[in-house]
Each structure stands twice: as C-alpha cells, then as structure tokens.
Amino acid sequence: MTDLSFMTMCHSAWLGIDAHLPEQVEAAGAAGYRLFGPDVFSVLQLQAQGTPVEELGEMIEGAGMRCFEIAALGIYEDRDLTLEGARDLARVARVLQPDWVMANGFADLAAPGVGALLDECVAMFAGTGIGLGWEFLPFTPMDSIATTMEFVQRTRDAGVPAAVIVDTWHVFRGPDGLDGLDQLKLDDVAYVQFDDALPVIGDDLLDETMHRRAMPGSGEFPLAEFCERVRAWGYDGPVSVEVLSAEWRERPIPEYVTATYEAARRFWPA
User: Which residue of 138, 160, 164, 229 lies most exposed, with the fewest beta carbons within 10 A?
Assistant: First the structure.
C-alpha cells in the first residue's frame, strides 16, 4: 500500500490568503490521508493567530495522521532572508518531527558565499534525524537533477540525511524530462510529489506551477508511464499530492482535498 501525504501549498499563507490550516488538517484526515505536509508559511500564520505549533501537531495526530513533510527551506543570495527562513523551519520541524523538510535552491551553489550559507542552514538540522529533500525547480539555478545532487551531496557531507524530491511537474517541465530520472538511484530519492498540469499558456513557469496544475489524470502529463518508471526503481515510499490550482483554490477546502486523494489513489492504489 502506498501512503499518500497531503501538501498544503495550494492554500498556503505564502499566497497572501488565510490558509485555514485546521480545516485542511480535518479535511485531509477525513479524505483518507494518513500523512500530512504543512507549509511553514501557513504554520507561522496559524501561530500568529494564536495556535502554537504543538497544538497543530495534536490536530494532525487527532485526525489520524502524522507529519511527513514540511515546505520549504529556500536558499537565496540574501543571507538574512535565508537564515530567517531556516530558523523558522528548524524550530517548527523540531516540534512536528517530519521525515523530510523540502528545500529549494534559488541561488547558484557556486556563487560567492552560497555554499557557506547552505552549510549554516544545514547545521540547524544536524542531530534531529530529519532529512532535507531537495526539489529541483525549472525556473531556478537548481533546475536539474545534476545541480540538485550537488546540494544533496553537500548536505550529506555535513552529516544530515538528504535526497531528491521527484515532483512530476518539475520532471515534465524541467530540462531532464522523464528519461532524466535514470540518473537517480533509489537511495537518491527522498519521495515523490504527484500532480498533473494544464497545457502551458505563457512563459511564466512560476505562475504555471503555482496556479495551473491539475488533478492527476485530468491534465497532459503521462502519469501512468511516470508511475511505471518509479516502481521499476523499487520505490514503495510515500507519495505527496500537491495540486496547485487557482481554479480549485476557489472551491471549498474539503471538496478540493477529497478530489486530490481520490485522483491520486487511481494511480497509487491502497
């Protein structure tokens, strides 16, 4: 049985909206999810509204789930911005104890000072048992499997578990494509993130990834072939469902969450 994780980024506070995180927790548990992936922006919003992180953890457990992932650590050229985000994530992660913290490289690792900055951030997770899952994004310097593995290796060299997050959107919209997955060994895979997408209508890939994903099976990605490739590795770990859609964002949260679970289950049976 493949465990599915619900990722909250579609309704993230990062978008400038109320994430309604308790409602998302309740809806995910009711839909059948057993793993939950909050984004740190929404966790901080909930904290500012008066709910401590410890209480969120109790909500997740009470809904029959555990925290599997948290989004997201960003490595930027801006040192202060990067360290502030890393400290928030490390603090939240120590409470919720996810398997993985998602991480993205918005700065070139070869740029002056970036490697040292990365080392400072990684050190915050040392000794926690929490891994950093590096997710390549086609619109950032860390846009390919090869560049992502540089971040992974540097993290491992610092004694913190690290691997690559394989997100279908970034696979099919990125430079490597489906065949590029052959570069990865099973031990290099943190987990899979699963989604579909509508046909591209513009050059803004950030807008496309944040607002024009689709329920699995309702877009243009060859998801059945993707699943075959992943299973051929021998991968049998959790699959995170992350459908970022402006259209679905307008619908009731329980309807959206249930739709993500049911669509993903068609590809990853219980």
Answer: 229
* Cβ proximity of 37 and 68 under 8 Å: yes
Left (φ > 0), alpha (ψ -120 to 50) or beta: where does 5 sit? beta
Q: How far apart (Å, rounded) are the C-alpha atoms in residues 251 and 248?
A: 5
Please list, in sequence order, all residues whose beta carbon lies within 8 angstroms of the beta carbon of residue 131, skipping any fewer than 6 positions away: 99, 100, 101, 160, 161, 162, 163, 190
Is 147:105 a contact under the CB 8 Å cutoff? Answer: yes
Nearest Cα to Cα of residue 166 among 142, 134, 206: 134
Alpha helices in 124-216 (DSSP H): 145-157, 168-173, 205-211
Q: What is the pLDDT of residues 69-117, one digit of tens each?
A: 999 999 999 999 999 999 999 999 999 999 999 999 999 999 999 999 9
Distance in angstroms (rounded) separating the CA atoms of residues 111 and 123: 20
DSSP state, residue 250: T
Digit-coded pLDDT (tens) for 39-49: 999 999 999 99
Structure tokens at 101: 């913290």
Residue 1 has pLDDT above 90, yes or no: no
Q: How distant, in Å, are the alpha carbons of 5, 36, 57, 100, 239 from that of 60?
A: 12, 7, 5, 16, 18
Q: Which two tokens stand for residue 28?
A: 């995910």
